Amino acid sequence: MIQIKKFTFNPIQENTYVLYDETGECIIVDAGCFFDYEEQELDNFIQEKQLTPVKLVNTHCHFDHILGINHCRSKYHVPFYAHAEDAFLVDEIVAHGDRFDIPVEPVDAIDHFLNEGDQVRFGQSTLDVIHVPGHAPGHVVLHQPEQQFILAGDVLFYGSIGRTDLPKGNFDQLVGNIRTKLFCLPDETVVYSGHGPETSIGFEKKSNPFLMD
Questions:
Q1: 78 CB-near residues (< 8 Å, 6+ apart)
Q2: Which residues of 54-93 are buried (b: 16+ CB within 10 A; e: fewer)?
Q3: Three-state SS for 142?
Q4: Total structural domains within the chain
Q5: Which of 37, 48, 113, 143 could disulfide-pair with 84, CB 3.0 to 4.6 Å?
């Protein structure tokens, strides 16, 4: 059974997740640690739980979600997975950080590309990859159907949706994809978002002002 640990990191208050199971293998999703103490907090948790990171997996590659990639690559020697259509965001991380007055270092290219229908595997666990562009062109959502949760990145938030004014964002595409690819999931599905608290598919169907008919 997958366990989930959430950290809130960096000046943008981004949620980084560590997912692990009974084997001790784990993946780090949206590694956003920026300050030294944030890197230490992440490392301490992994050490205390005696976990072995095997992958860095990103829902998308906006700069606040990849600020910790360099640290995690160096510390754990693990590959970086994301969708190919977000490769340009990795290349442009320094410029994007400058727009928010946050100095960042370059990040090396994505090691392995994720595609619709892929599975992310670690230990005895799997997550299904759903491509949900609109906030970012290569945005994916990670779905665990048996445990009924998704890692939604910046697609869907508690009472809100991802912004679409960033490069290659598209409001109509985002809303359409949420309705066709996420709202078909069971209402009980827990949504772990890239910022803010958890929510559920059922709650957002009923109350999200951006998605009500």
A1: 28, 53, 54, 55, 56, 72
A2: bbbbbbbbbbbbbbbbbbbbeebebebbbbebbbebbeeb
A3: strand
A4: 1
A5: 113
Q: What range defines the domain where residue 148 resides?
A: 3-207
Computed on alpha carbons and rounded to an integer, the radius of gyration of the chain in Å comes to 16
Give the span between the Cα atoms of 173 and 137, in whole angstroms: 10
Within a domain: residue 40?
yes
CATH number at residue 44: 3.60.15.10
List pLDDT tens digits, range 35-89. 999 999 999 999 999 999 999 999 999 999 999 999 999 999 999 999 999 999 9
Instruction: Tell me the torsion sign for CA atoms 169, 171, 176, 179.
Output: positive
Inter-helix orientation angle 36-48/69-76, to 10°: 40
**212 found inside a domain:** no
Q: Is residue 151 one of the residues assigned to a domain? A: yes
CA 129 vs. chain centroid, Å, equals 11
- This prediction has a pTM of 0.97
The answer, yes or no, to whether residue 108 has pLDDT greater than 80, is yes
Helix (H, G, I), strand (E, B) or coil at 58: coil
Residue 127 belongs to what H/E stretch? strand 125-131
